[in-house]
Request: fold
Amino acid sequence: MTADPVGVDDEGRLDPWVAEWMAANPQRATPFEDLSPEMLELARSPMGFPPTRPVAVITDDTAAGVPVRIYRDQGVPTGIVVYLHGGGFVIGSIGLMDNVAREIAHASGAVVISVGYRLAPEHPYPAGLDDCEAVTRWAVEHADRFGVPPEAVAVAGESAGGNLATAVTLRLRQSDGPHLAGQVLVYPAVGGPAEFPSMVEFDGLIISRTAGQRYWEAYSAGRDLTDDPCAVPLAAPTLSGLPPALVVLGGCDMLRDAGRAYAARLQDDGTEVELASYPGQPHGFVNFEFPAAGPAFERIGAWLRAALAGAIG
Reply:
């Protein structure tokens, strides 16, 4: 496993810029814990912030019966990235995470297919994962539509989307499905209800333990899924035979330690993995486009370009 040489002390010290932003934006920095129908509707808005990154062609469509938004920039695409947005399995939307999809398309040169998968509590596990798997299979089967070889398809997601991205690779391995070119996991939620030290240390920074518990209850619908690797990827008996992975973490994120444990498991089980940790950054720093997001997207883009090219070698 390749990893950035980051000292733990420096990694877990909140970036002063972030602290100032949180003080100036208390509403956006407050963990989302209210899962009432009214609040869920607001937090699933089809509209996000005004776009700052132009992309040549953006179309809304359906793939395998699932709503998608397809981003295609100028030039010959390097491949396809199926992007799965975050939101604790209960909130978020294609529109709200439009900025992330745009940045991935720009940085990687790939066609990005952003998936509007079903959300809990109305649609608990495995409904959302079923949608993500279906669109990923569709992307492989229809890669020629975009002038891309079927081998040059990767998945990417942040937070709950990171969980879904790696769960898709686990499902494809189980079914002897297509082998993807790579998986980009940005502060992935891979530990289920298990607690790690970072969850206590950074409780309340953008997300909270209370919110996480409520999200998990909604996603699991009260069932015990702790031994189901497609719900809790850290529970997988083995992580061998999976696509190469890039794991991106924030140094002050509740999910940091679970993400690091997953990267270590990938390495131990023989799957190629690269770990990138961004000191002082809380959960969501990529989504909020904090200053550290720029270098993170550059690294994601470079990694995806190499992984997609390597797959068609």
About this structure: The longest helix spans residues 293-312. Residues 240 and 269 are 5 Å apart (CA to CA).
